[in-house]
Amino acid sequence: MTRVLPPATPHPAALSEPAGPPGFSALPGWTDDAAARAAARLDRSGFDPGSDPDAVVVARSVDDVTTVLTHAHATGTPVVVRGAGTGLSGGTVAGAGSVVLDLSRLDRIVEVSPADELAVVEPGVITADLDAAAAAHGLRYAPDPASLAISTIGGNIATNAGGLRCAKYGVTRDSVLGLDVVLADGRRISTGRRTVKGVAGYDLTGLFVGSEGTLGVIVGATLRLRPVPVRTATLAAWFDDVEAAAAAAAAITAARLQPAVAELLDTACLEAIAEAGGTTPPGGAFLLVQTDGFGADAEIDAVRAVVEPLARSVEIAADDAAAEELLATRRAGLPALERLGRVLVEDVAVPRSRLAEAVTAIAGIAARSGIRIATMAHAGDGNLHPILVLEAGRELDDHVWAAAGEVFGTALRLGGTLTGEHGVGLLKRRWLRDELGDVSHDLQRELRAVFDPGGVLNPGKAL
Amino acid sequence: MTRVLPPATPHPAALSEPAGPPGFSALPGWTDDAAARAAARLDRSGFDPGSDPDAVVVARSVDDVTTVLTHAHATGTPVVVRGAGTGLSGGTVAGAGSVVLDLSRLDRIVEVSPADELAVVEPGVITADLDAAAAAHGLRYAPDPASLAISTIGGNIATNAGGLRCAKYGVTRDSVLGLDVVLADGRRISTGRRTVKGVAGYDLTGLFVGSEGTLGVIVGATLRLRPVPVRTATLAAWFDDVEAAAAAAAAITAARLQPAVAELLDTACLEAIAEAGGTTPPGGAFLLVQTDGFGADAEIDAVRAVVEPLARSVEIAADDAAAEELLATRRAGLPALERLGRVLVEDVAVPRSRLAEAVTAIAGIAARSGIRIATMAHAGDGNLHPILVLEAGRELDDHVWAAAGEVFGTALRLGGTLTGEHGVGLLKRRWLRDELGDVSHDLQRELRAVFDPGGVLNPGKAL
Question: Which intervals of the chain are annotated as region Disordered (chains A, B) (predicted)?
Answer without folding.
Answer: 1-29
